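Protein data:
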Amino acid sequence: MTATVARPMSVKLDPETRGRMDCLAQSRRRTTHWLMREAIQQYIEREE
């Protein structure tokens, strides 16, 4: 069985966007990491 290895990737956000992301994550009781993964997955599904 082959193990899938997740590799880190970074994204640079301006302070306003980062602040909005932090507020949204806090209000949803999620991490910013979770929000970014969810947003990217939804974008890929929509665009494919």
